[in-house]
Amino acid sequence: MRKWLSYTSPLIITGILLSFSFKPTLVKVPETLKVSEPTLVLFPKNKTVSKTMLMAPPFLGSSYIGFKEALAFKESQGNYFTTNTLGYLGKYQFGIGTLQLMGVYNATRFLNDPILQEKVFHTNISRNKWILRRDIPRFVGKEINGTVITESGILAAAHLAGAGNVKKYLRSWGTIDVADSYGTSIAHYMHKFSGYDVSEVVPKRNPRV
After folding, report:
1. For 64-192, CATH number?
2. Backbone phi, psi, residue 159, to 5°
3. How far apart (Å, rounded) are the C-alpha atoms in residues 39 and 202?
């Protein structure tokens, strides 16, 4: 019996030690990182739409899609169905007056139609690019208020404050700046949205959806 124990004891001890050495370390996942429900795919990839859906900017780099999604996140956190305290509508926060310029007169339909909102955004960017067609080549690459001016920064600022106010900002070399009702200025948008590739946007005079 003692002879059998003398042979088996080292094997048992070795087995116990090995079981401890290869035991996986358990890491407790914070509750905020756990997935507790299905993740919604952003419209229109699979046409899943939710009024509680918020969209964070995807990792799209400096592409045009990256530009518009970053701008949308700043405007509304990417929510197609929101209206702010001043009555601006949707993912890109359009006012009624701007919508009418592009042939959209039904605010309810606009607010509930993500495809229409995307069309309106692109149409408005084309319109602003036409209005600023002389200022873009003149000022891109110049530095104003510590920011190197880019085409995407100009177009983002025009979305915020209107193309006319952006003209005044550029032509006054930043002396004439305006801010929206929440305190966001043209200079801020020029800096925040600089460096995106918006070359695929074709300038159009008085475009309509």
Report:
1. 1.10.530.10
2. -65, -40
3. 35
Q: Which residues, other chains included, contact 130 with Cβ-Cβ below 8 Å and sequence gap of 6+?
A: 203, 204, 205, 207
Please tell me the distance from the alpha carbon of residue 107 to that of residue 131, in angstroms, as a whole number.
Answer: 25
Q: What angle do CA 97, 101, 103 make, to 5 degrees?
A: 110
Q: Are 49 and 114 in contact (CB under 8 A)?
A: yes
Q: Which residue has the tokens 């756990």?
A: 34
Q: Where in the sequence of the chain do the CATH 1.10.530.10 domains occur?
A: 64-192
User: How many CB atoms are located within 10 Å of the residue 158 CB?
Assistant: 25
| CA proximity to 111, closest of 87, 93, 89 | 89
First to last CA, the chain: 93
**For the segment 125-174, what is each residue's pLDDT rounded down to a tens digit?**
999 999 999 999 999 999 999 999 999 999 999 999 999 999 999 999 99
Nearest C-alpha neighbor of 127 from the set 23, 201, 20, 178: 201
Q: Is 203 left (phi over 0), alpha (psi -120 to 50) or beta?
A: beta
pTM (predicted TM-score)? 0.72
Tokens representing residue 48 in the block: 């899943």
CA 30 to chain centre: 26
Supply φ then ψ for residue 47, to 5 degrees: 60, 30
Helix (H) / strand (E) containing 144? strand 143-144
